[in-house]
TrEMBL record:
It comes from Flavobacterium taihuense. This is Kynureninase. The gene is kynU. Belongs to the kynureninase family. It catalyses: 3-hydroxy-L-kynurenine + H2O = 3-hydroxyanthranilate + L-alanine + H(+); L-kynurenine + H2O = anthranilate + L-alanine + H(+). HAMAP family: Kynureninase. Keywords: Hydrolase, Pyridine nucleotide biosynthesis, Pyridoxal phosphate. Pathway: Amino-acid degradation; L-kynurenine degradation; L-alanine and anthranilate from L-kynurenine: step 1/1; Cofactor biosynthesis; NAD(+) biosynthesis; quinolinate from L-kynurenine: step 2/3. The keyword Mitochondrion does not apply. Residues 89-246 form the Aminotransferase class V domain.
Amino acid sequence: MDFKNTLEFAQQLDEQDHLHKYQDEFIFPKVNDKKVIYFTGNSLGLQPKRTKKYVDEVMNDWANLAVEGHFYAEKPWWDYQERFANPLSKLVGALPSEITVMNTLTVNLHLLMVSFYKPTAKRCKIICEEKAFPSDQYMFQSQVHFHGYKPEDVIVEIKRREGEHNIRLEDVLAKIEEVGEELALVLIGGVNYYTGQVFDMKTITEAGHKQGAYVGWDLAHAAGNIKLELHDWNVDFAAWCSYKYMNSGPGNASGCFVHEKHHNNKELPRFAGWWGHNKERRFKMEPVFDPVHGAGGWQISNLPILSLAPYLASVEMFDEIGMDQLILKRDKITSYLEFILNEISKEVHGSFEIITPENPLERACQLSVFLHGEGRSLFDYLMKNGVITDWREPNVIRLAPVPLYTSYEDMYHFGQILKTGILGK
């Protein structure tokens, strides 16, 4: 499409946008009494207006029913999490039985590693990507220490080539083949948090399985952002947070996927708790653990209903729209943002460098940009002028034009504010 860097053109794109109305579903912060341009949905999504209704419903049930809310609330608490199975299964390409919601992301990844990282003297190594999100790095280190290994002996990072910002698929596959029979687990972020690179999960999963390893995915930046087919890709397990693209609120509950091929494997270790016990017999307080069939059998504690309520509000909105519609707008608005950045770079004689892959199959909703020649002061200027974005050292800003609540007009105005911030120095 031939884009134009004009307000009129941006407004025309908004008029043609089937998702434009969903901006009114969200609450925007204000700076200088104006609604912000919000680029940090890859860190914390905006609050949907419908969230309050869902939270108030739980608060009212608690007030009016107290403990009886577990069974007699409009949405009974004892099976509240089951309402996520159908809509989330469509969002991540799974069977409903393969989905549960519990805990938070790194907690769930630790719990899933109990089941899927079972090192032996011969097969003990973990493959991950270089510059994985720090929480994942700490998780890997502590897991291998727990099993009596040294991280430097067991953790294998796939590195970027000299002078390149992204990891090549062929290098991932080569490293998996090289580690070979020593490989116990491949666990990579489906979308790299820093560069926004989307990995070929299907191909990498097949390669890991070929070597006899389990393959799992941290989908923190993928869920609600990219098309996932976890069941068909034969992924062993995955987990994601709900507060980024899925707008459930700060630090909120995490979704989990466990492939159905593992549901009947009684030899697979797991940490157990009463909420993962046979649902029909849960309140009989039996002494021997009998897991719920499916991903629900990995639950441990009863669920924090006040946390799940905002997530359910957002999940139902996603279910209304569907990932296909979101991805159509995601690709178009991200391309328009890329065009705006390149146009402004020319106008200010700058040297912006987008380090997110140019190939649409290898990127999603995020553009990470090196602002060569610019420093933190430009980021501060953007923030003071109503552009909420994200800074990463040394001089990268991450921009996520979330299709649910950003507009093409936002992209145009961002470009003008960026230009003023550079030329006005």
